[in-house]
Specification:
14% strand, globular, alpha/beta
């Protein structure tokens, strides 16, 4: 039996999340402004989305902007917002063409009206797409997510729709972001740091973690394949290599 049929029998991760770290350091090593790294990071986003689409992964969640990132220099934050708007407007047609649903996860209240309108328009355009969901976490924090979910349950209790005794793990889990999507299987962080930085605290309860020194702009199919292979080895005790993952992706893409 060849590698590809064997891998198809294994459970690939259905929901992968990535903390895209290292853009600024990548740019500094090139002797360029930090903003240059963020722009190059967009190419890594395209590669990652394409690879997940080829593998048949149902959900990909990318940590684009945390609730703590507002503390960065104003010029960098402003540029990030402009880049977010530009990429959103430019990439949504390609996502739609490839049957990918876009969902922005986070507290949008801090964004400009123009950006929020662009987000809503993109989400509406891709709402019925079924091949894959791309979640972009923007102004997102794991603690914020849990608090917001608790507030929803509290409002239901106050309105007489729910009794305190009815608040269970399942009830709370149904209120957090992306509750309608597959549970998170694999959490990847680039850039070398070994922490999850307030990202998907609830969703990552049973996820496998994989860390790499690779800076985000250099994150490519080969590195992504290594992460997927490590996940399969941990979960299924089945030996495979990054090359086999790429073979599977190529086979799925042809199909």
């Amino acid at each position: 039996m060849t590698a590809v049929p064997q891998l198809k029998q294994q459970s690939l991760p259905q929901h992968v999340a990535i903390i895209m770290d290292g853009n600024g350091r990548w740019a500094e090593r090139q002797g360029k402004p930090r903003v240059w790294g963020h722009k190059k990071g967009v190419e890594a986003v395209r590669r990652s989305v394409s690879f997940c689409r080829e593998l048949g992964i149902q959900s990909l969640t990318l940590f684009a902007f945390s609730s703590e990132n507002w503390r960065r220099p104003k010029e960098e934050v402003s540029t990030l917002m402009q880049l977010f708007l530009m990429v959103l407007q430019k990439e949504v047609k390609a996502l739609h063409k490839n049957n990918i649903r876009l969902k922005i996860v986070g507290d949008l209240s801090a964004f400009s009206d123009k950006l929020v309108q662009s987000i809503r328009k993109a989400e509406q355009l891709t709402a019925e797409n079924t091949a894959m969901t791309l979640n972009i976490a923007a102004n997102y924090g794991g603690r914020w997510d849990i608090v917001a979910a608790c507030r929803k349950l509290a409002e239901q209790v106050q309105g007489g729709e729910l009794q305190p005794a009815d608040i269970t793990e399942q009830a709370l889990g149904a209120q957090v972001q992306m509750a309608e999507q597959p549970e998170l299987d694999l959490l990847i962080r680039t850039g070398g740091d070994l922490r999850i930085s307030n990202f998907l605290l609830w969703q990552a309860a049973y996820a496998e973690f994989w860390f790499t020194e690779t800076l985000w702009p250099d994150f490519d199919q080969q590195v992504f394949s290594e992460a997927i292979a490590a996940y399969i080895n941990r979960e299924r005790r089945f030996g495979c290599t990054g090359a086999q993952i790429r073979e599977l992706a190529a086979a799925n893409n042809k199909g």
